[in-house]
Structures are given as C-alpha cells and as structure tokens.
Amino acid sequence: MTDIERPTHRDLTREELRELAQRIAADPAQWSAHVAHDPTQRTYAELLRDEHVDVWLICWSEDHDTGFHDHDLSCGAVAVVDGAVREERLVLGGEPTARVAGAGASFDFGAADIHRVLHHGDVPAVTIHAYSPPLVRMGSYLVEDDGTLQRHSVSYEEELRPLETAAG
C-alpha cells in the first residue's frame, strides 16, 4: 500500500486524510483480505504506517463502541465502506451531537476533538481510518455520573471501548 498517492515528506491535513481514506476505501484490493467480523469485538488491521501517516481497516458489528476518546496529537478521517457508523461529539453541559455515516460517506476530526464511534444499523460495517501524524497514544474518557470528565492515556495498539465496559 506504500504506493498510494499522498504527500510523503510531511504530515497530512484533515482534508488530505479524508481524501486518502476515501481513495483507499474505493480500492478493495488494498483492504478486502483483512475484513473479518467478530460479534464480540471490533476487528482491525493496520494497512499502512510511515513517519507521517497510518491507515487502518476496522470492522464493526452490533454494540461495538469506541467510547469517548481523542487522538492525542493526530488528526484523522474515516471513510465508510459498508454498513454505517454513528459519530458522537462530546458537548459540555448537553447531550453529544451525533451524525450517522453510511457507505460512501466520510468525516474527519482534529487532534483535540473528543468523539466516539459506534456501529449503527442492522448490518456489519467496514471503515477505513487515516491518521497524521501516526497514532502513538490516545485519550479515553470516562464521564462520571456527576458530570466530571476523566482522561486515561492509552496506547494506539489498545482496542478503544467505553471505560465503563473496560472497568466492569
């Protein structure tokens, strides 16, 4: 996959990440061998990693949920190949904003954005994720009953999930 056209001498912008994720999503030869759905957990495969970008394939089934998180220093973009996912962004003092992205749709986010991604609908989903600079750490958030917010630093290699589930 290293032959995918992209800037190779610098980190990518959000717009460039979105275009990259869309191009890869449109080329199943780059990722189809890695599609595997497991109802108990998201499955994922790193498709590309260099000093400026990393790209992942993630497979989603019912009840799969990243929990609220940020991407530390990395911007990112998601292109939906099959099925649908719902992105929610944390809002202080109110309910999270939400949008559903189905096959062919994409969205992006900044390094400081706190969001969660969940499977949506009745059929499994497949998404392509691109990050720049490459992920190293992420912040996983716990919203306490009293509204306080706790950030827990996790490695990019760990599966994100709601902290309530991880602790329980």
UniProtKB/TrEMBL annotation:
InterPro entries: CDO_1, RmlC-like_jellyroll, RmlC_Cupin_sf. Fe cation binds at H69, H71, H115. GO terms for molecular function: ferrous iron binding; oxidoreductase activity, acting on single donors with incorporation of molecular oxygen, incorporation of two atoms of oxygen. Keywords: Dioxygenase, Iron, Metal-binding, Oxidoreductase. Belongs to the cysteine dioxygenase family. This is Cysteine dioxygenase type I. It comes from Conexibacter woesei (strain DSM 14684 / CCUG 47730 / CIP 108061 / JCM 11494 / NBRC 100937 / ID131577).
